[in-house]
Amino acid sequence: MNYAYLGPAGTFTESALLQVPGAADAQRIPASNVNVALSMVREGAADAAMVPIENSVEGGVSATLDAIAQGESLQIVSEILVPITFVLAVRPGIDSLEQIKQISTHGHAWAQCRLWAEANIPGAAFTPASSTAAGALALEEADPPHDAAICSPLVAQERGLKVLVSGVEDNVGAVTRFILVTRPGRIPQPTGVDKSTLILPLPEDRPGALMELLEQFTARGVNLSRIESRPTGKSLGEYFFSVDIEGHVAEERVAAALSGLHRLSPKLRFLGSYPAAQGLEASVDTHNSDAAFSEARAWVQSLRDRV
Amino acid sequence: MNYAYLGPAGTFTESALLQVPGAADAQRIPASNVNVALSMVREGAADAAMVPIENSVEGGVSATLDAIAQGESLQIVSEILVPITFVLAVRPGIDSLEQIKQISTHGHAWAQCRLWAEANIPGAAFTPASSTAAGALALEEADPPHDAAICSPLVAQERGLKVLVSGVEDNVGAVTRFILVTRPGRIPQPTGVDKSTLILPLPEDRPGALMELLEQFTARGVNLSRIESRPTGKSLGEYFFSVDIEGHVAEERVAAALSGLHRLSPKLRFLGSYPAAQGLEASVDTHNSDAAFSEARAWVQSLRDRV
Amino acid sequence: MNYAYLGPAGTFTESALLQVPGAADAQRIPASNVNVALSMVREGAADAAMVPIENSVEGGVSATLDAIAQGESLQIVSEILVPITFVLAVRPGIDSLEQIKQISTHGHAWAQCRLWAEANIPGAAFTPASSTAAGALALEEADPPHDAAICSPLVAQERGLKVLVSGVEDNVGAVTRFILVTRPGRIPQPTGVDKSTLILPLPEDRPGALMELLEQFTARGVNLSRIESRPTGKSLGEYFFSVDIEGHVAEERVAAALSGLHRLSPKLRFLGSYPAAQGLEASVDTHNSDAAFSEARAWVQSLRDRV
Amino acid sequence: MNYAYLGPAGTFTESALLQVPGAADAQRIPASNVNVALSMVREGAADAAMVPIENSVEGGVSATLDAIAQGESLQIVSEILVPITFVLAVRPGIDSLEQIKQISTHGHAWAQCRLWAEANIPGAAFTPASSTAAGALALEEADPPHDAAICSPLVAQERGLKVLVSGVEDNVGAVTRFILVTRPGRIPQPTGVDKSTLILPLPEDRPGALMELLEQFTARGVNLSRIESRPTGKSLGEYFFSVDIEGHVAEERVAAALSGLHRLSPKLRFLGSYPAAQGLEASVDTHNSDAAFSEARAWVQSLRDRV
User: Fold this and answer.
1) Complex ipTM above 0.85?
2) What domains are there in chain D, each with its CATH number?
3) DSSP per-residue letters across C114-170
4) Which of D236, D240, D283 to mutate to test the interface with A (most CBs of A within 10 A)?
5) pLDDT per residue over C204-262, tens digit each?
6) Nearest-CA distance from D186 to chain C in Å?
C-alpha cells in the first residue's frame, strides 16, 4: 500500500495518516492540494489518500467536499479525528513576543489563532503561507522571510524548531476530521457503530425539496451527524448536500433510506460506509429494526405472490 | 359458485349481486345479517358474499367494517356501486298520503327519507323493520301492521306492490358501495384502475401515530379514496382505520407503502386489490413509478453486494 | 333551564342528563331523535340538549355527528360518560330463557348483545324497537308483542319490570359519551384538562389533504382524542372529519392550530372547549407552551414594528 | 454616510460598494478582513459595511457567515450581485505565459482559476497573497516578488497594469453576492420581491431537529433561496444554519414562520428583510396569503373573546 496525503510532511494530515495501521511503514506521498491527492488515487498512483473533510471550528473543507462530489467515484473507508493545537515557532534570535514583526502560517491556521495574535502580537504583520509546515520550514532558511510561524507541534518537533508559546489556538479542543479515500471496492463490514457518507444533489429548486430528502432519513429513524451545503457552481442558489448518517448500508433502515433518496434524486452518490471514529451504537426503534424491515418485506412478498 | 348476501331477497344488496357475471344463474343465499353472510364464506358454506360497505350519505357500514376487520381473514375481489332510490309502497286501500298512519322500513332507509317524511307524512308513526324488504312484504299480509313501507324499486316490482310515490329519498344521487368477499386466494391482476383495502390498527395512542401511517401513503404518492375510523371496542379513543387506496399491490409504490405500514403497525390487514368500479388511472410522479422503485432497489443492492 | 334529550324517558341519555348539576329538578323534554333534540335548542324551545356522540363499541353516533356538523351553529359545553350495561327484562309469565320466542330492543342495543343472544336464546326472533325503553315498555301491555326486551337497568327499575338476566352486554366495560349542547355563547373557562371539538371539511380531494390538516395539530403538540370520518353526503369519497383534541381554545397551542386549520379549511366549525370527563393534564413541551407562543409573537412584533 | 468594506481598494467588494447609490461620493474605508469591517459598524466607526457572503462557485464566505451570526446584532439592508471575472496581470518584461515562474493571488481566486493555471502555466509556483489587489500591486514594486498576479479587471485598469490574458476564471458566469450591513434599525419597506436572512441554531442534536425547522417554512409556503451549515465551533457535529428565505417580515406567512422558528430555536437571529437583487414575485397559495392569515387570526380571536 502507498498513501497520498495533503502535504507537506508534518501537517496534521500526516498525523492523521500515521494513525492508519501500517501507514507508518508504508510509502507516504505528500500532495500539493486535495485535488492532486485524490487524482493520484483515481489514476492508480496511490492506493489511498488521506484528506481533511471537516474542522470543528472552520467547518467543512470545501476543496475536499467538492472533489469527492464530482469526477470519478471514490470511496471513504475510514475516518480519523485529530485534535488541533498550534505552537508559535520562531527563528533563531527571537526570544520574546515583542520582537515578532512578521508572522506567517496557512490562512486557515491564522483564522484559528487570530484572537490570540490580536491580543499577544498586535503589531505583527501577517503573510499567508501555502501550508503551516511551509511557513515553519522557512524559519530554517539563512535569511528567514518572517520571525515566527504558527504550526503543528509535530513539525516543530521533527525539525527542532524553537517554540516560544504552545497552545496558541483560540478554540481549545478543536478537532479536524480526516478521511481515508480509495477507489470504489469492498465496503468494510458493519461494526455496530458506523457512518455512511452521501452526496445529495437537490432534485429541483422547489419548496420542500430538501425536506423531502431529509424525510427519507427521519421516516426510518436514521440520524444525520453532518450536513454541509455546497454550491453546484452553476448558479447562486443551486446546492448539493454532503451528508454523514449514522449507520451502515448493510443495515436495513439505511438501505431503505438510500432507496428512497435514489428515487427522489437519482444522481446521488454513495461514498461509503465505515466505522465511526467515535459514537455510540444507534438506538433503533423496533419498527426500524432489521427484523421489522425483513418481516415487512416478506409479508408484502407473500401478498404479491398471490397476484 | 354460490353466493351469500345480506338479505332478504329484493334488497339493494341482491341488486348488487345480480351485477356479478354469472350470479343471476347461481345459487344466492340471503343472510340475516352481515356477520352471518361472512361466516358462511369463512366456513365454506358459500364461495363468496356480497355485503354493503359504504353509503354516500350514511357513511360506512359499521357491521361490515368491523366484521372484515376481525376473525379469520377474508379478501375483497370486486366492488359494485348501486344507486339508491326508494319508493313508498302502500297496502291495499291506501290511495293518498293523508291516509298513512303507520309506516315501516329499515332504520337506515328511514334516515335517508326522513325529510321527505316530515314534509309529506308528518303525522305517520314509524316502526322499524329488520330490512326494507321485510317492511314491504308485511304489506301483503292479511292484516298489515302498517299502511306504508319505504323500500327498493326492485322489491316493489317483484311483489307487485302498489307504489304511491317514487324517489322519496332526501338525497338524490345517493350511492351504496358493495363488496364481494371470498376466502383469501388469488388476487385479481392489476387493470390500471385498481383499489386496495386495508385495516390499520393505530400502533399506539401517541400524538402523530395516525400521521405516521398516512405519511406512508403520501411519501409514495398513493391516494386515499376512503378512510373510516372505527373503535376497537376496548375503550373510548382506541381506533383502527379502514382505508381504501388507489392502486394495486402489484404496483411498486403500493407495495412500498404496505411495507412501511407493516413496520409501524404489524397487525394491519390487507383485504385485497381489485378493479375500481369507477375512476381514472392514477397519475404517478416519475419518482414513484415502478421503474424508479426498481432502479433504486437495484442500486442499493449493488452497494450491499460490495459489503 | 330546560333540557331536551334523546328519549324516551329511561334511556341512557336520560341517565347522562341526570348527572348534570340541576338537571334532576329541571324540565326534561324527551325528543324522538337527535335532530329533533338539537332543533329544539336551535329554535329556543330548549336551553340545552343531551345527545350521545360516541360509544366505545359501536363507534360514533352518525346522527349526532351529522346534525352538529350542519345547520345553525351549536356549542358543546360539557361531556358525560355513562357505562353501558344491559338487562334482559321479560313479560309476566316468563321464567326461563327457553320460553323466550320473541325479543325486542333498539338495533344498537341488539348489536351490543348479539353474541350473548346467539349463545343463550338462539331460537328467539328479533324485532327492532325504536328505543330500548320502547321495547321494554311494551312488556307492560296487556298482550305484549314480545316475550323479552333488552334495556337499561334504569328503565327496568323505574317500571318495576321483571329482570331475568343482568349484564347481557357482550363487551363488559362499554361506555357511551354524551354531550350537552347549547346555542353558541360563553365558552367555559379552561380547567387544565379540557377538550375541544371541531368539524373539519377536507379542503379538496388531493393526496395529503388530511395530512396537512393533522400536521396543524402535531406541529403544536396537540393530541387528538377522537377522529371520525363522515361522508359529506354529496358523493362517495367526500368526507369531513369530526375531531376532539386535548386542550382549550384559550391555550395558545390550540389557538395556533385552529388558526392554521382555518387557513387550510376555512369552513371548519369550532364546536366548543369544555372540561374533559376524564384524562390527565396534557404534558406540553416547552416550545409549545403559552409562554413560548407569547414570546415568539412579541419577538416577531418587535421586528415588524421596525418596518 | 461612510462605508467600510473588505479591502484593499480595487477588490470586487469595492465594485459592489460602488453600486450603492451615493457610495461613489462617500467615504469608503477598506478593512483588512470581514471582522474588522463589521466591528467598525458595530462600534460606530462606519455607518455600514459591504462584505461578501456567497460565491456561486466557492460557496458561502465562512468569515462573514460566522461574524454576523455572533456578537452584537447587525442588519442586512441590501444585497449586490457582482459577476466574477479575473485577469492575468504581469510585471513589466513578461510577454508570454512561458516566462511566468512565480504567480500570486488570494487563495480563493487561485481556487477559481486553478484549472486554467494547470493547463496554461503548469510550471508556475504559487504564492498566496492576502488579497487579489495586494498580489497585483506587488507587480508595481521595483523588484516584484512574482511575475504575474490574478486580479480583478478593476484593479488592473486603475493601476494601469499589463494584462496578458482576460477571463482566466474556470467557471464563466460566476457571481459573488455582497451584503450591505448596518446596526439594527429601520427595516426597508417590502417591495414585493424581497429576501430575509436568518441564523438558526439547531435546537438540539436529535433526529429531525433540522426537519422541524424547515417544516416551519414549508408549512407556510416560504421558499428557501440559500441554506448554509456552519459549525458552532463547540464540537464536531454541532451546527447552525444560515438561511435566506423569499419574502419580507411584513408578510404574514414570513412572520408566522419566524414565530414558529422562535418557539423551536429561541436563539435564532433575524438579520433583515431587504429587496432581492433578482427574482420574481413569489406565487403565494391562497391559504398562505396575508388575507388568509388575517381572517384565521380574526376568527380565532372571536372564539377566544367568548371565553
Assistant:
1) yes
2) 1-84+173-186 (3.40.190.10), 87-166 (3.40.190.10), 187-307 (3.30.70.260)
3) HHHHHHH-TTPEEEEESSHHHHHHGGGSSS-SSSEEEE-HHHHHHHTPEEEEE---S
4) D236
5) 766 678 888 999 999 999 988 888 888 887 777 788 999 999 999 999 999 999 999 99
6) 5
